[in-house]
Fold this sequence. Notes:
Layout: H1 3-22, H2 27-44, H3 53-66, H4 69-86, H5 111-119, H6 124-136, H7 140-144, E1 151-152, E2 157-160, E3 169-172, H8 175-188, E4 203-204, E5 207-208, H9 213-226, H10 235-248, H11 253-260, H12 265-270, H13 282-290
Antiparallel strand pairs: 1-2, 2-3, 4-5
Helix pairs in contact: 1-2, 1-4, 2-4, 6-8, 6-10
Amino acid sequence: MNINEQTRFTLLYERYLNELTLQGKSPKTIEMYSRYLRKIGDYFDCCPDNLTADQLKSYFMQLVETRSWSAVKIARNAIQFFYKHVLDRPWTWINIVKPPKLQPLQDVLSVSEVELIINHTYKLSYQVYFLTTYSLGLRLTEALNLTIADIDGHLMRVHIRRGKGNKDRFVPLPLLTYKALRRYWATHRHPRLIFPGGKAPYIREGKEMVMDKGGVQKAIKIIAKECGIAKNVHIHTLRHSFATHLLENGVNLRSIQTYLGHVSPDTTAKYTRMTQEAAQNSALMVNALVDQFEINWIES
């Protein structure tokens, strides 16, 4: 961009960030939208406030050919927000034909395979993290960001804060998981975090550190391979397996949807096998499921 274009873009970009904040967008959404607005400016080498419909079509054409459908949707939403809330102009709708959606079946671990992975894990922090992620049905970062205040040992439940879509939820806390969390916390006694990262005092540049996402992802793949499990195992596999195991044990879809934090029941139904609903106490079912484990805990 020349100096005039860059100056104009800088002013509009600041307004864009302000409008995203005022509209209550999450930090993650702000980061994604702003990144794609910068990308479209770089693509045309100009401030993207006077792009024609044909120019936008050419941009989205190359996105459809080179990026995932989710990336295309984010880019379209980002530029649409820019036109509507910053430029105060009507958005010229770009009709993008959605490519065929592949729906491969996800791998599911058996209960014995989950137990095998936990027992073959070489670090107590990872052992407890894997058990927690599985037994609470959590997403990767939901488990990493757990705090002491989230764990309710009286009501035996966990408060999951600001999950996907910035939504909170409560999930049952199995006794085995509660004991494991207490066991691990006693090794570091962080005043707030369950899974602090790095070395004490677990702070970098003034910010509290949690365990590294890449570290836990890499660890579970290595351990699954060492256990002779040929499935494509990652952290989300634990969550997916938990939901499937609950369903197979008779917990109804509505309860599973609530535990996993899904907005739509369709999301839950898509990746779990359907079984007949059973009117049973779901919290007891979670405990019964997790209590099957016999964990050989690593000494810290």
